[in-house]
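Suppose a colleague, Dr. K., hands you the sequence of a protein chain of 397 amino acids and asks what its three-dimensional shape might be. Before reaching for any lab equipment, you can write down a predicted structure in token form. Begin with the sequence itself:
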Amino acid sequence: MKWKRDIVEDPYISMTLVLLVIVGSASFYVQSFVGFGIFLLMILYFKVHQWYLLNVGEGVTIGRTMRRIRLHCDEEQKWEFQIQNKGMSIWGATLKITFKDIVIPTMHPYTSDVGDSIEVSIPFSLRKDDKGTISIPVMGKRRGLCKVTKMQLEIPHLFGSGKVILDLLDHVPSTIIVFPANSPVKMAEQQLTWRQGDVPIQHSLFHDVFHQVGTRDYIQGDRFQDVHWKATARTGSLQTKIYAPSTQKEWMIAINISDRYAITNHLEDLIKYTSFMMQLAVEQNISFSLVLNVRSQGRTPYYYLPPGSGRAHRQRGMELLSTLSTDEFTIPFHIVLKHLYLRQLVPSVFIVGGVIEKREEALLMNIEKQKIQVYKLNIEQKQGVVTLWNRSLKVPS
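The predicted structure, expressed as tokens, is then:
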């Protein structure tokens, strides 16, 4: 582990050394062996003093844990760092940790620096070949990804005549992610979709071939693979499998976080509404995917969370939302819509949010022609409302 070492000595050390040389020369001149012996002892002390400052802190390492702590706003958790000392014993040291105010310490005093940064100082002592844990109880303050931006170890001299400052040059992988809060959204009632799926309903043109509910007599035109041979052998007449009626029920939430050449001023509102819709999808057992027009290095040139369901899938979506900032590099939203349209990635229900211009509207019309229900997330009277994108009617309260 690499540290940058700075040594801060007492400003009176140099003056004291000059005086000692004068006193030592005078003692040698007058042949005062007692004074000359004291002079040699002081010189030995200063040599040991310099050796201590040059070597203390060697062998100190910070554990490279890859653990990521996940929090909600106002939720508390302990942020722990493992520290090991393979060098000489350290007494009365202070570990200073700097990070963004996405989380705030709840038990340790801290100072606020420029740029929304927080510095917390933790005193500790550690013997040679010993390990310890620095624990900082923190509470989520706002949405975001919190990383350690600076870690500094300050070790004072045993006799208070100087100190060593070690700045960590390596990256600290331990991070805290604070999930966004939810803001309720009024959802328009959705119609039945016209796509094959596995969501059971009372009436549908499609059936779930993995959910058999019974058999009936064979009718001319029934598929050969639907014949139930065991029931046929048992009854002596051809029997056809009966499947439960089903349809596709899947959402794709596509959010445009840009407004012309900048990030939209409604970024936080869009994130809160999207978080609520993902939670609603989990509660209603609806599969969903998430699209953000942020540049990405993956298979797609934008952020794309493939379809999935359940709390674990929602957590992955929340992590994407948590890391968004006003410094993101975006791509035009119409390029995202065109890519989704050409790749046929859009499911039965398509919910778009953010600024929609003429080029986006033309693409949404083409998507709607594929018997896809297209909805628009609007912000009306500081509340999220989801309606059909080409309708102006509000959702009844």
